[in-house]
Amino acid sequence: MRGLRQLVGVAGLGLALGAAGQPVTVSGVKYDESLELRGNKLQLNGAGTRYRAIIQVYAAGLYLPRKTTAAEEALAMPGAKRITVTMLRDIDSGELGRLFTRSVEDNMDKAAFSKLIPGLMRMSQLFTDIKKLSAGQSFSIDWVPGTGTIINVRGVPQGEPFREPEFFNAMLRIWLGPKPADHSLKEALLGKAGPASNPAQTMN
User: Membrane-spanning regions, if any (predicted)?
Assistant: First the structure.
């Protein structure tokens, strides 16, 4: 195990999307098959659970204008997008913000990363100020064309939108980039993974 860095990742449980119109349930968290984000209709592309060893850390769902199984297509796709994360255990949100920054750096070249440092510092401070995310609490990262990236914690927008067009994709690469912390959740969010067994049932 890689300790704290794994908290950002994904592992474990990817569930196939349910029948049309039916919510998808991942580790007790329900994801509607579609939602509306500021007038933009989005579809659930995939959802999964992040495990640390045998411990469930969070469930995550990715919403896009249309479904795709290709990470680069998801990143390049025009229109509004959302990734939503629901905690399955209590976590230090300041630690989470720092890990996000490291994962963004892992998935970008140095020149591109350096341009986003001010926004990443603000994002990290935002999570530090929240102090703690408890089991059952959620946050989402939204891309709204013409507005920017909006981080919502417990359903409340945090501060001003991040205006840099590259910022949302940099955050999304935490899960979909070439070096995700775990490739299993990446596959689940891209709708590639069918029902998977709990790692706790297969680990010795």
Answer: none
Q: How many helices (H) and strands (E) does the chain have?
A: 5, 12
Residue corresponding to tokens 């709990």? 198
* Nearest-angstrom CA–CA distance, 74 and 83: 12
- β-bridge partners, 87: 58
3-state secondary structure of 196: coil
- Whether the Cβ atoms of residue 33 and residue 64 lie closer than 8 Å to each other: no
The tokens of 169 are what?
Answer: 């994709």
> pTM of whole model > 0.90?
no
Residues 142, 137: Cα–Cα separation, whole Å: 17
Which tens digits make up the pLDDT trace of 56-114? Answer: 889 999 999 999 999 999 999 999 999 999 999 999 999 989 989 999 999 999 999 99
Report d(CA 30, CA 22) in Å as an integer: 10
What Å distances lie between residue 84 and 3, 51, 139, CA to CA?
Answer: 23, 16, 6
CA angle 64, 192, 51 (to 5 degrees): 95
Instruction: List the beta strands (DSSP E) in 66-115.
Output: 81-87, 91-92
- In percent, the amount of the chain with pLDDT more than 70 equals 84
Per the CB < 8 A criterion, the answer to whether 120 and 146 are in contact is no
Read off φ and ψ for residue 116, nearest 5 degrees.
-100, 0
Give the chain's largest Cα–Cα span. Answer: 50
Q: What class is the 3-198 domain? A: alpha beta
